[in-house]
Amino acid sequence: MQARRALPYQRGVAIITALLVVMLAATIATYLLSQQSRALTRTARATERAQVTLYAEPTLNWARAALFASQNNSVYVALTQPWAQPIAAQPLVSPDGGAAVLASGLIHDEAGKFNLNNLVKVDKTASVDDIEIFKRLLKNLKLNPDLSDAVVDWIDADNEPRTNGAEDGYYMSLAAPYRTANQPLVQWQELGRVRGFDAATIRRLAPYISALPTGTKININTASTEVITALFPDLSGADVADLMRKRATTPFQNIDGVTEKKPSLQKALSTFNQVADVTSSYFSVSIAITGEAAATHQTALLDCTESKKGSWPRIIWVQAQ
Predict the structure, then answer these.
(1) pTM score, two decimals?
(2) Nearest C-alpha neighbor of 291 from the set 118, 146, 42, 94
(3) For the chain, where are the E strands, in sequence order?
(4) Could you tell me which residues come within 8 angstroms of residue 29 by beta carbon, excluding any fewer than 6 positions away?
(5) What is the pLDDT of residues 51-91, one digit of tens each?
(6) Within a 10 A sphere around the Cβ of 158, how many other Cβ atoms?
(7) How far is CA 319 from the centre of its chain?
(8) Which of 234, 313, 316 lies closest to 272, judged by CA?
(9) DSSP label at 116?
């Protein structure tokens, strides 16, 4: 009698066990399918990222071609020229008929900014005139002018700190110690390692500075109001506004064209050609390639020194962002 009574109970246990097994199997299957789906998604995204990156090089070559044409056919560089017009979301279709991606790009004249490497001359000594220009730029941007000393110390060859600067003694005392570079900056982003330059300061300063391989003059046709004012502190606000207004419609084709028929400018710019120019050799290119599920952003620095001799702009560096 006990065996007969236990039989329904055992059947119930068996059914519950079977249901648990089915549920467990379903859970495992769902998990495996989910993992497989994620793996496929990751693979698809990695593939698209790789494909998107392939479009960066031809987009950069578009910029090189535009700059070559500009440098090869003109004696000046200005914002009215074709190179300064951005590529805005141009569709690119792969040869195999894959999904289209969008390419955009923008070229900046780096000679329209203050070249930080001008702070130290070729002989590794400080350039007093350029330091004063940089101090005025910092002041124009509501930043501490004393920051210039730290940049000079970072670039110059000696280990003697300037009044408001810092050399190895300071940097080696940090929690994560390192030494001063004692060489020109490769990129302005290196300021993040220089004493006094926090993220907010660098963001404020970034649009107005460059770090170029050689000493450069500032291009009056592309420089901002802040840079021009720092370059020539004796110019009145009206003079600067007049200069900016003229170049917007008729870019200056030579240095003399900037000062002619303007006595106040002739007086203020008596040493104009020593620090300013109307042409440029260095340009940065910002590229964005966007697909359905992936994107890449790159910045490159180009040297156009040899463009007038028939050579395409040379790529100095390319950085993924």
Answers:
(1) 0.81
(2) 94
(3) 87-92, 101-109, 114-115, 209-210, 218-219, 276-277, 282-290, 295-303, 314-320
(4) none
(5) 667 777 888 888 898 888 888 778 899 999 999 988 777 67
(6) 13
(7) 8
(8) 234
(9) G
